């Protein structure tokens, strides 16, 4: 048995033999094992001979059966050849008979067709004779139930009558035409009645008969008219039209042989009658009296009409249904779309002007003409380092003349205008119309509102020596920045999709660039380079701080009469200046963004340091006064940390170290001056601070510092 392993087989045989399983043991008997192997080999030889005889017998039997099978196959092949030969003979016979039958059929048809035509002609001649005699006696004309057969006959007679000469057969032609007309009217009446009863099968039969009559189109008209009876009872004519067309689309194929033509004619009737009348009523009411409502209605009606057209595209209306529906829509709205953009621009202009005027009226403000010249003129004046032509200062009472509500209203009006422009403009005119709307937005939002507020803000900036400087211009900057972000968002979201693939794109981008550049010039004209708006504002801040220091700082603050009775930690002037500076820092952060914040704060911080430095140089300091000055500078340094500008903090750290020279003992002056923060300073600066000490003239101090 498979799998067979000889070694394992020998091992099993030895193990089963007594005395053969223990190798080298006491019970091991090699003779007996040998005897067992010899006997087993003899048994295997006998078994092999028996199996070999059996195999030979089976091989002989297999050869015998193979010969018998081959013989049988040969006999079957012969039988198959005979059957195939008989089949060919039968096929030839069938083909011969079929040819004979077809020939006979052709002969019969050739005989029967003229006979049928003759019979048909005889019948028509009979009916023609009745019209000729003036009396219709045939049952087909008198029996109303045979109207279908009568219609077929009269239609053929009508065609024949048209070929006859008028002078000899005028009377009979007139009678046939009269009967033709009567039957046509009866069929249309029958179709109408069947439609009212809802009998689709009868309508299909009558329509099939009328198909060959001239009045077939009238039958279609009747069907279309009756379909619309009771279909437009709600206020939504567009929804009613969609439901009607959906219902007729399912029915028309069961009645007419050309359903797509009938459905297209129904849709055309709906557009030219129902929709056109509805649109005219809705638009003409407001066309001259209310532009806003007129534009809203026009957009709404056009949108609903195009949506209805999209639904109708699902139906089979012929080969070019897109062009067919587009022509229907154009026929309704062409008179309104031709001058749409003029109405849009006129409304947008008046509406925007009204929004702005209403805002200025609410502020009791009369707009004035401030600032002249364009951006190039402004740049030229800056290049020559001349002052901006601010003119006389205007007291705005802290009003920025910028309104989020006004901006939102203007942007909302423009957004709606862009949406209407996208829907109502011809594709070829869309970029041009969108640019005109954008120009209106630039005029009223950027020029009339933002730019006016900036110009007014510039004119309202007080001089640097003003005692009550209201630095509200930073509020103007903050609001203008926020508004322009909204303007830029609308430019990208609503204008760009309309002009992205047209030449107007570059024109719009250039116009936007000019607006941005003009406003940036007015908001940020280079803080470190020229006299600009921020510089004027910073001058006002520094001027206000000078005024506070001059009004609040007393000479006795740093040289008190009683050195042992000083109860304050820092002077009143320091408290007020620090409070003012913190407010201005917060206002600058709220008014600007990006790198502008750090740039302005750095300039402000440097000027703040210079002011305090020069201010401290104006006084003489006793020992206790010097301690108070150090306390003041420490407070100024805390205030400088709010700037979050490393340079500003470093300047105040150095100033604080300089103030230590006001109180240090004479013996330690050189050590302090060689310290880390003062070692790199000019000796004249150190000397100028030491000179502020009241004991500077003493021989001891002079000896140690020289």
From TrEMBL:
This is Exocyst complex component 5. The gene is Exoc5. Residues 149-705 form the Exocyst complex component Sec10-like alpha-helical bundle domain. GO terms for cellular component: exocyst. Keywords: Coiled coil, Exocytosis, Transport. InterPro entries: Sec10-like, Sec10_HB, Sec10_N. Residues 30-138 form the Exocyst complex component Sec10 N-terminal domain. It comes from Daphoenositta chrysoptera (varied sittella). Pfam families: Sec10_HB (PF07393), Sec10_N (PF20667). Residues 41-79 form a coiled coil. One of its GO terms (biological process) is exocytosis. Transmembrane segments: none annotated. The keyword Secreted does not apply. Belongs to the SEC10 family.
